[in-house]
Amino acid sequence: MNIQRLQKKTDGRSFYNFLAEERHMQVNTIDSIHTVLHQVLQVVVDDEYIAYNPSDNALKELKQSRTTDKKRQKALTLQEQQLFETFLSKSNHYKG
Fold first, then answer.
1. Helix, strand, coil shares of the chain as percentages rounded to 5?
2. 15 domain residue, yes or no
């Protein structure tokens, strides 16, 4: 994928997918690249070299497709920790 070919919105999506699939980059890394790239492309739009920013909303779709399957983990509350520890201490299977 050649970054100079970013002219259409589908090019922006393709570029981010290339980074994720071919370069095996994490979404957070691609997000950092997007932040800089989007600003640069916006200057190009403002200078009227291209009509619109091809990176608009391109990362949003990648994030949605890559993060919808993952559940966010959360820490146990103090009460949940105590309940869990009580369970473990009373269980013959987990006594150490």
1. 60, 0, 40
2. yes
Query: End-to-end CA distance of the chain, in Å?
Result: 55
CA angle 57-61-64, nearest 5°? 135
Q: How wide is the angle at C-alpha 17 spanned by C-alphas 15 and 21, nearest 5°?
A: 125
Integer angstrom CA distances of residue 67 from 16, 41, 59, 64: 15, 26, 12, 5
**Parent domain of 22:** 3-70
Q: Side chain identity at 32, as an amino acid letter? A: S
Work out how many domains the chain is built from and give that number: 1
**Structural domain contains residue 11:** yes
0.85 surpassed by pTM: no
Q: Which two tokens stand for residue 52?
A: 């619109």
Is 10 part of a structural domain of the chain?
A: yes
Tens digits of residue pLDDT in 33-80: 999 999 998 998 999 888 888 888 888 878 887 765 556 778 999 999
